Amino acid sequence: MTSVLFVCQSNAVCSPIAEALLKHLAADRFETMSAGLQPTVIDTHTLAALTQLGVNTEGLNSKGLDSIEERYFDIVISLCEQAEEAARAIPANQFMAWHFEDTLCCSQPQAAKVVHEIFERIKLLVLLQDRKAKPLW
């Protein structure tokens, strides 16, 4: 199982979205976590946008980097510029930077847009990892 950590500044918008979407798409193949440099409560518009897509948000909560101490990940993904340096320092086989604006969503349409943008990247991640595990030819 591939372990993935998503890191952003607040662990209130982008990283919980990514965590929930990857669990939704491929929980059987990925162990997924998220954390933030300065965690705050997960944005309510974010939770509503995920729920509207049928993504389970039960148990999704904001966590700090201290929650992943002593862990090694296959992939660490930074979701904002503010978190990139800290994310690069986390032991992992692979690092990726997907920079989004990590700010609280002020409306449901804005949250839905962020969810959609991250969902597109998550689908590509799953496809690429599946192809590594089982090449086409």
TrEMBL record:
Annotated Gene3D superfamilies: 3.40.50.2300
This protein's UniProt keywords: Arsenical resistance
One Pfam family from the record: LMWPc
GO biological process terms held by the UniProt record: response to arsenic-containing substance
Domain Phosphotyrosine protein phosphatase I: 2-128
SUPFAM superfamilies from the UniProt entry: Phosphotyrosine protein phosphatases I (SSF52788)
Protein name as it appears in the record: ArsR family transcriptional regulator
